[in-house]
Write a structure and sequence with these properties.
Oligomer: single chain
Order of helices and strands: EHEHEHEHHEHEEHEEEHEEHEHH
Strand order of the largest sheet: 3-2-1-4-5-6-11
Radius of gyration: 19 Å
Helix content: 40-55%
Number of domains: 1
CATH class: Alpha Beta
CATH architecture: 3-Layer(aba) Sandwich
Number of helices: 11
CATH topology: Rossmann fold
Shape: globular
CATH superfamily: NAD(P)-binding Rossmann-like Domain
Number of strands: 13
Length: 332
Amino acid sequence: MAILVTGVAGFIGSHVAHRLLARGDTVIGIDNLNDYYAVSLKRDRLATLDQAHPGAFRFLHCDFTDAGDLAAQLAGQPIETIIHLGAQAGVRYSIENPAAYVHTNLVGHANMLELARARAVRHMVYASSSSVYGGNTKLPFSVEDRVDHPLSLYAATKKADELISEAYSHLFRLPQTGLRFFTVYGPWGRPDMAMWIFTKAILAGRPIQLFNQGKMRRDFTYIDDIVTGVIASHDHPPVDDGEIKAGGSLAPHRVYNIGNHRSEELTKVVELIEAACGRPAQIELAPIQAGDVAETFADISAIQQELGFAPTTAIDVGVPNFVRWYMAYHAS
C-alpha cells in the first residue's frame, strides 16, 4: 500500500512512518523542514528512517501549503491513502505569529483535501488537537462535546480543519478520520514541549517554570500509543452508510480522541523527570499563560469501542524512556 505521510520529519510523523515501513507498507513522506525548531533534529529523524528501512522510504522536500509544488512533486506517485500530520504546532507561538497558523493549518489542510479528492484516496487521516476543547470544564473531554470556544488561534485552526473536512466528506463522500491528540511525549519529541524543556533545564541546573502556580493536569500520551491509534484509524476507514459517526457526522467522517485516559498532575511528571535525571528541579511558580488550559483528560470510549484502542504506557514508564533518549541523543 502506498501511503502519503505529511510532516514526516516531525515527532509523530516520523514514528508513524517507522511503524508503517516496519510492517511492509510503501511510505512517501513530505516535509518542508521549516525552522520552527532545530532543523537538525528533523534531519536526524529522517536519517533514522533511511537507516532502518533502506530503499523503502521515499522523502520529498515539499511544502504542502504550495498547491503547485505539492502537485508537481507528487505527479506520478501512486497514493492510496493519506496520513496528514504536518501542521504549525504550538499554542503559545500562535499568539506571536498567527499568520503561520492560518497559512499552514488552513491553506495547507485545504490543499491536502484537494489532493485527496483529486486522487480519490481510500482514506485520509488528519491530526486535530485536544486544544479544540478550549474552555470546556466538563471532564473527561468527549468527541460529542461542543467545541465552539477555543482559547488560542492554534485551537481555532484545528477546529476549522475539522469543519472543512466535514464539508469535503459531505460533498465528495471522502472518507476521513480526525484525531484529537492529547499531550504526546516520548523519544524524538519536540523541543517546545514541557517534557523536553523541563529535562533540559534540570540537567543544566536551571530553574523550570510551572504555570498556574503548578496546578496543571494533562493527559500525557506516549508516542507508541499514539502511533497505534493512528494506524488503527488508518486501517479502518469510516463507512459511508448514513449512520452517525463518532463526533456526530452523517458523512464518512469521524473524530476520535487519542489519549491515555488519565489526567496526571504536572508535578508528578516533574518528579519522574527529576528521578530519571538524578537531580532535583529548581521550581518557579508562575500564573497561567494566555491560551493555556488548566486540565485535559481524554474520553477515549469512541476509538476504544470501535477500533479496540487501549493505551499501554503509563507515565512512570514513558517519562524515564524519554529522559534516557534525551541524554543519549545529546551525548552523541
